[in-house]
Amino acid sequence: MDAPTSTRPTIDDIRAAATRIDGAVVKTPMLHSRVLSEMVEADIWLKFENLQFTSAYKERGALNKLLQLTDEERKRGVIAASAGNHAQAVAYHGRRLGIPVTIVMPKATPTVKVTQTESHGARVVLHGAMFDDAYAYARELEAENGFVFVHPFDDGQIIAGAGTCALEMLAEVPTLDTLVVPIGGGGLISGTAIAAKSINPRIEVIGVEAELYPSMKNVVEGTAGKIGGDTLAEGIAVKEPGELTRAIIKDKVDRIDLVAERDIEHAVALLVSLEKSVVEGAGAAGLAAILAEPERFRGRTVGTILCGGNIDTHLLANVLVRELVRCGRIARLKIAAHDQPGALAAITAKFHECGVNIIEVEHHRIFTRLPAKDTVIEVECEARDSRAIDTLVKRLEDAGFQVDRAELD
Fold first, then answer.
1. pLDDT for 81-107, tens place per residue?
2. Which residues is 101 bridged to in the sheet?
3. What is the domain partition of the chain in residue ranges?
4. Which NCBIfam families match (predicted)?
5. Equal fold, 3-57+155-321 vs 78-146
6. Is the dihedral of CA 210, 213, 219, 221 positive or negative?
7. In 3-state terms, the chain is what percent helix, strand and coil (to 5)?
């Protein structure tokens, strides 16, 4: 590695980055959430990095890196490996600065992400089945073509750019005593911790990883958590964290929490319903950790970074519906009944009495353990609140029907 990449940035580097990128990235809102504060019994502040032009904080580091290239390096062009926010950040600011950009993405990258990156003027190369394959090929192309490699996190200039987010947070709310920051490769929390601890050595910096990807916790704390699986927080689903970032985190970060998938889903849904803001799973991980264990944050002044908002609309729809199921407003009931005229009418009458709307009805006569004269009527329904569905279930059972309620987890 060259010196700018392998050297740990200082608070002066972060302040210089803030000056360098000023006016070219959004100084995103830092807002107090009254409802979330009441839920946690703490002062909760949200940094809306999902409102950057490319919907993620990655622009800060990418721009800081690109602005420090020499004229000769700019002519050669840059290359990066990414299937997400880093790709769009490098592509967008590369085009603004007139720098040729090549992005290597795994072949399985969703078409929408490929087209979004191409729309920013980058040349996209699809290679390999996984990110590791794309990364290795990007390093090959770097050597063959003389490109400058822009690492997504393990680079001092990238880390310094990310740290500008913390400068803005503490300038806006100097009384913050706790920062909760998502961890993938570790670039964001490294910059955040350097900046925050330099300004206020007593501030607590807490990292958050998806429970399925405890890679940084493993290397920093010596744990042996299993890594892998489908996570909503794919933006922080990193198997091998950075070398520079792990050293900074070991030195500057107070602890690393793990957050379960259902808690990430809950945080994404709450941000839509309460803050009217779309945040991807990785971006909501910090809030998810706060909500999962509120007693650890009670009485504090807490800031967390909503670090990205690039979530597939179909996936977001699934998350929102699943949240309605968990809070009891949507239910799927399996109702055993005699297979005879009037049975369905008797059941639907109870729905009407309780003010519960029927979304979908299915009869199961063959694949059931009930006697041949019976049937299972499966009903998906929605109500104004969970009490209405609880009342419905009781009335159906009082009327002699056997009712089973499907659960998510």
1. 987 899 999 999 999 999 999 999 988
2. 78
3. 3-57+155-321, 78-146, 328-405
4. ilvA_1Cterm, PRK07334.1
5. yes
6. positive
7. 45, 20, 35
Where b means 16+ CB within 10 Å and e means fewer, 396-407 reads beeeebebeeee
Instruction: Kindly state the tokens that stand for 175.
Output: 């009384």
Q: Which of 278, 384, 249, 262 is nearest to 326 (CA)?
A: 262
CA distance 280 to 30: 18
What does pLDDT average to over the chain?
94
Contact 234, 84 (CB under 8 A): yes
Q: Which helix (H) or strand (E) holds 188?
A: helix 187-199
> Span 328-405: which CATH code?
3.30.70.260
Full-model pTM = 0.90
* Number of C-beta neighbours around residue 250 at 10 A: 12
Q: What is the CATH number of domain 3-57+155-321?
A: 3.40.50.1100
Within 10 Å of residue 58's Cβ, how many Cβ atoms? Answer: 32
* Residue 101, phi then psi, degrees to nearest 5: -125, 130
Tokens representing 197 are 């601890």
Contact (Cβ atoms closer than 8 angstroms) between residue 390 and residue 346: no
**238: three-class secondary structure by DSSP:** coil
Question: Tens digit of pLDDT for each residue in 303-362?
Answer: 999 999 999 899 999 999 999 999 999 999 999 988 888 889 999 999 999 999 999 999
Sheet with strand 78-81: strands edge to edge: 123-126, 101-105, 78-81, 148-149
